[in-house]
Design goal:
About 35% of the residues lie in helices and about 15% in strands. The relative contact order is 0.14. The termini are far apart. The chain has helices at about 75-80, 85-90, 105-110, 120-155, and strands at about 1-5, 10, 15-20, 30-35, 45-50, 60-65, 110-115. It has 2 domains: about 1-115, Adenine-n6-DNA-methyltransferase TaqI, Chain A, domain 2, CATH 3.90.220; about 115-160. A 4-stranded antiparallel β-sheet has the order 1-2-3-7. A 3-stranded antiparallel β-sheet has the order 5-4-6, with helices on one face. It is an alpha+beta fold. A hairpin with a 3-residue loop joins strand 1 (about 1-5) and strand 2.
Length: about 170
């Protein structure tokens, strides 16, 4: 038995949900999933928060998924639809010709995704957010290290292309 939830979700049993797509004018806290190539494959998606008066405008080339907060969080939905395996499965189900392929609405209506308790969802998404922030910080540190190596090289030897320090060349 399926329960139709206001705001775009169909719930089946306690542990899984079906993503059903319903476009809403009022967005509040909503997850977006790009449905056209190459945006979907590139991981385009977002969570809308803090919109003035709760309204927004956008393209028709994304699905809007607004969960019932008592059962599922937007963050959980966003993490599920951002997962590489979910996107690969969505890609396999795309319809249309090259360059204009889209994920069909039926894909989201029929796919079952895990539905832990709202407390577990919040714990998992907060942990994943912390990890994402750490990964981002380390990537920025790596960029800083790469820039330091380049600037140190240039300071010691000059730009190798313009040879501003008039370094000699030897053939080996």
């Amino acid at each position: 038995m399926y329960l139709k939830m206001e705001g775009s979700l169909l719930i089946k049993r306690e542990y899984f949900l079906r993503l059903a797509v319903v476009i809403h004018i009022s967005l509040r806290t909503t997850s977006f999933f790009a449905k056209i190539t190459p945006c979907m494959e590139n991981g385009k998606g977002a969570i809308a928060r803090g919109l003035v008066n709760g309204f927004g405008a956008g393209s028709t080339e994304f699905f809007i998924l607004r969960p019932e907060r008592q059962r599922v969080s937007s963050e959980w939905i966003y993490r599920v639809i951002s997962h590489e395996k979910f996107r690969k499965l969505a890609e396999k189900n795309m319809t249309g010709s090259a360059g204009q392929r889209r994920v069909p609405k039926a894909f989201l209506e029929n796919i079952l995704v895990p539905l832990p308790s709202i407390v577990e969802q919040d714990h998992i998404t907060k942990t994943l957010q912390t990890v994402s922030e750490l990964v981002y910080m380390y990537k920025m540190k790596l960029v800083d290290c790469e820039n330091l190596a380049k600037s140190t090289f240039n300071e010691m030897f000059g730009d190798p292309i313009i040879n501003e320090k008039k370094m000699g060349y030897e053939n080996y």
